[in-house]
Amino acid sequence: MIGRIVIDDVRPRTPTRAYPAKAVVGETVTISADVFKDGHDILAARVLWRPTGKPQWNEAPLAVENAGLDRWAGTIVPTTLGRHELVVEAWTDRYATWRHKAEAKLGAGQDIATELEEGALLLEARAADDEQLAEVAKILRDDKLTPHERLAPALTPDVERLLQGAPADQGEIAASEAVPLWVDRERALFSAWYEFFPRSEGGLQGARNRLPAIADMGFDVVYFPPIHPIGRQYRKGPNNTLTATEDDPGSPWAIGGPEGGHTAIHPELGTFTDFEDLVLKANELGLEIALDYALQCSPDHPWVTEHPEWFHHRPDGTIAYAENPPKKYQDIYPVNFWPAGDADRKALWTACKDILDFWIAKGVRIFRVDNPHTKPMAFWEWIIPAVQATNPDVLFLAEAFTRPKVMAKLAEVGFTQSYTYFTWRTKRDEIVEYVEEVALGEKADYMRPNFWPNTPDILAGPLRNGPVSAFKLRAVLAATLAPSYGVYSGYELLENEPMSDTNEEYFHSEKYEVRRRNWDDPRSIAGCLTQLNAIRHRHPALQRLRNVRFHASTNDNVLAYSKVSDDGADVVLVIVNLDPWSAAESTLNLDLPALGLPWDAPFEAYDELSHQSFTWQGPEPYVRLDPHHDVAHVLHLRPLS
Amino acid sequence: MIGRIVIDDVRPRTPTRAYPAKAVVGETVTISADVFKDGHDILAARVLWRPTGKPQWNEAPLAVENAGLDRWAGTIVPTTLGRHELVVEAWTDRYATWRHKAEAKLGAGQDIATELEEGALLLEARAADDEQLAEVAKILRDDKLTPHERLAPALTPDVERLLQGAPADQGEIAASEAVPLWVDRERALFSAWYEFFPRSEGGLQGARNRLPAIADMGFDVVYFPPIHPIGRQYRKGPNNTLTATEDDPGSPWAIGGPEGGHTAIHPELGTFTDFEDLVLKANELGLEIALDYALQCSPDHPWVTEHPEWFHHRPDGTIAYAENPPKKYQDIYPVNFWPAGDADRKALWTACKDILDFWIAKGVRIFRVDNPHTKPMAFWEWIIPAVQATNPDVLFLAEAFTRPKVMAKLAEVGFTQSYTYFTWRTKRDEIVEYVEEVALGEKADYMRPNFWPNTPDILAGPLRNGPVSAFKLRAVLAATLAPSYGVYSGYELLENEPMSDTNEEYFHSEKYEVRRRNWDDPRSIAGCLTQLNAIRHRHPALQRLRNVRFHASTNDNVLAYSKVSDDGADVVLVIVNLDPWSAAESTLNLDLPALGLPWDAPFEAYDELSHQSFTWQGPEPYVRLDPHHDVAHVLHLRPLS
What we know:
The structure is a homodimer of 641-residue chains. By secondary structure, chain A is α/β, with parallel strands linked by helices. The longest helix of chain A has 20 residues, at 342-361. Chains A and B meet through strand 1, strand 3, helix 1, helix 2 and helix 10 of A and strand 1, strand 3, helix 1, helix 2 and helix 10 of B.
């Protein structure tokens, strides 16, 4: 049963409202709701919020954001990790309602005797709080004064503050249901990832030696494909062939061998001491190590013999390998997450959590989760909160390359971040539509996109046999459209050879082969990535998701978008030529007020990439981007004078 | 906690999911949901539904509607009034999953020994249901036959039916929460309303005499402004002036006088016997009488003296008239729906329900509710279900001319229908956008629009000083865009004089004056309304809301839209020239497949208004509408041959 005041659609929230929406510490989070009441009374509203279980509420005012749509909004800035709860409250602002009535009638020359007496009663009821109110009430009743003289002292900011500040004294307070909000650390929202295979650097020690260069490029997270022993049976050879020689290293995702499973390190990579040294070195450099959490087993995984009940069986009792008929994946035994017995399920799920706890104890706080959509949603719904209950700083990136509803549901039940379809969105309208969906729509309340131009599995769009400009422009897009992005190593070396015209894997994929690289290759665009990461760190505007805004351009190959920081002080405008082969000219149509810039005065546009400074005026600057020189402008906009 | 299969977003539903969505008896209602599971298993789903409290479930299958979006849909056709509940269930279709695997592997020339044995086990587990299954299982195991011969008998429709028909035998069944659905009688969705003031026809007897003409025009509902005694104090004179003479009848919405309040009949209109005769006559003619439910009182209403506690008081103890400062409405005392004491509130709300029960006992089943947005939402949330609990055939039309969120919330908490902004949507893009919002969006799950070109308060758009063509075209739009529409009498006589350039009331509004009309005026467009109502009754396509589809036209003044009946057999295409002054030519771009019409063969377009028949071929017919002859085509489309 609703009360007199209706409070609906409190946001942020997830679609089913059964799971928390998401924010990070230090983020300015907009809380909004529909708030209305019958009649003409003036309302007031606020949001109360606190870490769940704490006795003390914080509060922030809500104000009308869109009167026609009865939408109210305010902001909060969470300061602690973990689950929070929000309650929106609204009440009739008796003082404002009375004041509006009295002023409107006085202004129309009408008698306000009734309003003067009503005001006196209103103030007297609160006179215990402040002596001043009793005095003002007396003046309201003083019929030796003019109506205007009687009213004026009751309209001062002091009186307003005294009467509006205490909702508990305003009669009925309507309250929404408590809405849950999960607060992560900032890296859940703002992070630059770099993926590489330790074995291609000679193992964990070689990987450790590579860290300073990655830190110098300005990345925040270093993600490794699985570092566990690799199965021998049905091991894959180069280019995903079915026969491997003794020298072939196999896919790291075929996890498990005689040396152990998900809690072991491949002996060829090194030891636990090497791993600990690596983590220490990373932390020294301000980097975090993210591990792959890939819940599948090679036929040689210890679980296969220790826990055959955790796998699918054929009628003849043998364990079934992975199939999507007619495709066969003989090197992988998928785990049966829903074995017949509840006890078996509990034991399996606990063992899966033990893997996470094991690596958490080794200092890992970020997991990239392989193919989460092939495991039950109920499993993620259980395991992520179970881990975060004791370790609220642990983050999970979903490799949710699957159908959109499934991708969104994984985010809803708890994944911190998700890979997205960015990799395949290459034309202007596709990019605008997709970014508006994931950054500006309701999904942004709970799903955080992580934009990857490439992965070890995906060489797509203009990168396929693409020129250096393609690699630069896709990096600019990923790094500036989303606050989280990542690249798979080799990107800076412009590795661009696809498996075939129809297969979007890499030729000689590193998944099946060790790949030695010449990091000193003069063609390397490491400098470009370094620039982008530095710009991201320098500009708070680029550290948020929901603040992207697209601007019109006259050329379909020219994409223009801006971001403004929470406090409005930092304004970045990005202009990208989406055609890696040809120069593009365009006139833009900037929404200047949204950028805090004047219509009629010049402003500065400083290009953080080229270090050129332009003086622009008006909403329609002209740009020309020749990919042989510049693929993009990343402009810091500032009013002049 | 979710299970292995996810079922989300079951529709129809309301935004908060706390109230029932709406349907009518005999309506083909689409039930849809997101349904998915990890992995490659093939799913099956159904909806179970029943009147709430009944033991027996009905069921209907759901099928994949959009695989990429994991959206499933099916249809149900409710047959009884009242509250229903729906549950969507989904399960793994083991037979289909097995069959897909076996066929895919056989087709790729792979060994299917495992699948043959799995199939045999699957069939044997169900052999108790049917002997045939045991036989087929034996063949699956008969290694003297080829794999194809062994498999084939298990793939017959008979076996498929036996194995797919019983979800209870398929292991875990996932189920959504129960979703409520309120089922009204068909008039809640499909109705043509005609409003007139009985006093302008000489009272209830005169009104009764007018009914045959209204029935002849094909209307379904006759709605009267309040028929109760009218206050004397502060009675309004002609054109809303503040001084009335003895001869001025006053506004019927200033309810209550010495003769009684909301359960009395104005003596000048007639007696309860007259009212009973009127209802009888209406029923004879297939019409229903709708009364106005306007919860406000003139200063002379009996409640003012009997229940002063139900009104707002000034500090001096006097009752406050209605104000929206600086506007004053001295002839109206608004009811205070939230008096201080719970007992007073209960007594007041009960008295309000007593009014409805009183008129329901007199045979009234439809109420048009005046200004519902000025009464608490909680009041409607209580009173509508309270009435419908015992009288599920009672319908409420909300005069919710207010902000969109409030309009939608009134529908959500229980109103059967709502007035809309149609009256002010006159340009093509405005109409398309608005109709898509109310007919095709999520609102259509619970809010039923009733389109009125005019009301006694509103003379808008091209009707203001408008020509006959304006009246015809707005009637065509209202009658064919929405299954419920209405006109206020005088419309057929082209009454078009506004109060002023800025005031959208009528000059000499009938709200304050008796208006005698010459129904035999030769300019009357009663014939046009008669035609429209006959077409609506003849074409099931026009009796539904969610089936409207707009088609492109090359002329901004030409609006084209189609409706197709639930069974696909009835197809109506409406083409309207929105400019009442000038002829408009246009080429259309019809979505022929959506209309069940061929791309490459001629089809018939029969104009139900002009009785002309056209033979068209292809998606781009040319039309010309000269408002001096025809404002619109209402075309019945049929394939030829």
